[in-house]
Amino acid sequence: MSTPSTFKKTVTERALAAHADAWTRLSTTNTFMAQLRADTLPSSTFAKWLAQDYLFVTDFTKFMGHLFAMAPRRDVDLLLSGFAAVRAEVAWFEQHLAKTQPGALPGTDYVRLTDSNAASAGAGMACIAFVSWLQSLERDHAPEYRRLLIVFWAMEHAYMSAWNTARGDPHVPARYQEFVDRWTVPEFAAYVEGLKQAVDTAYSTATELDIQDAVGLVGKVVEHEEAFWAMVLAA
């Protein structure tokens, strides 16, 4: 009689393993980051990324708010720390855009991307698709906190993984070092790890069908992340 394994994989471990090749493309073989490290990234491409990522992050904060409204007490402090960091990040983006691309900043009445304002905001198709998908999760007739949480963790994990490829690289041009430093600090890594643990706790009693659904959600995040990077690199 065989003995059951005592080393059951968590939902995040399964999600990372199921999409291992895609995670590699988002991190170690990410073309944008490779060009940034080699100082071959066109300045226009970096400017495009900055503007598109700003639009995405402003909508990302709305997703965070929806997630926070559903959060159990055990995760409140963790998510609040994320709000504080993103608030500073949005202001930081705006400072850079005000200097280099003032036309990319929406007005003070701007709320979030919609079908009616996407074109005037200058949002690319991949940015619009990513944001629209997140908004569809918010509008689910019976949204589950843990489903939104694993999507949130996957997005933060993807961002950290990409920028970590430039951490400590002496070839990174000085003009980009500020960006590398922002997303490779130990505090951000600790935050992403905290989200990972929160996800695993939320799914600790989930059914196999729920786990498979969660792995599928992470797969969608990966698809949108890859499309976003490809959009930025496209001429």
Automatic annotation (TrEMBL):
Protein name in the entry: Thiaminase-2/PQQC domain-containing protein
Pfam families hit by this protein: TENA_THI-4
GO biological process: thiamine metabolic process
PANTHER family with a match to the protein in the record: BIFUNCTIONAL TENA-E PROTEIN, BIFUNCTIONAL TH2 PROTEIN
Domain Thiaminase-2/PQQC stretches: 30-94, 145-233
Record InterPro entries: Haem_Oase-like_multi-hlx, Thiaminase-2/PQQC, Thiamine_Salvage_TenA
GO cellular component: cytosol
